Give the backbone structure.
Amino acid sequence: MVAAIVIALSLFLAFIRGGQLNRLKNVDLRLPYLAIISFILDFLPYHLNHIPSWVLFIIFIVKYTLLFIFIFFNSKYKHIKIIGMGILMNFLVILLNGGAMPVSRRALEIPSLAKQVEMIQSGVLSNYTLMTDKTSLWILADIIYIPWPKEQFISIGDIMIMLGIFLLIQHTMVND
């Protein structure tokens, strides 16, 4: 949801700055299907029940490998490099925490997140784990509270990804 708002805001600001939507077609992304497959893999664990942890870890590695290849082949765009840095940050914190993104324990205090916390604790949302004092690279975990439009926690990596998308849209619509 936050990403959709960032994209909409970037499009709106680009229009205000005299940008043209049709310039977005000038972004010549190589191997875009790798990113698409990666996003599909991101949602796959939510639709399959009782997946062994080793399968989830393989999905995690494949998903990020596809994204890194996509970033590499599109690194001529400086804003794609910013997106890549965010993806790398998320990858590292997830990798070093057993294949799950750590979420701030403050989530326990937010009533609207009770269902998600319960799903994390029960293993239904196996892509996430609550932070502990043993969490590696906790600074890159989902520790930044976003109260609107939907209460959630995001990571510095998520912010970098959204910043890269925002800047890519701005640059392309206004400058090309």
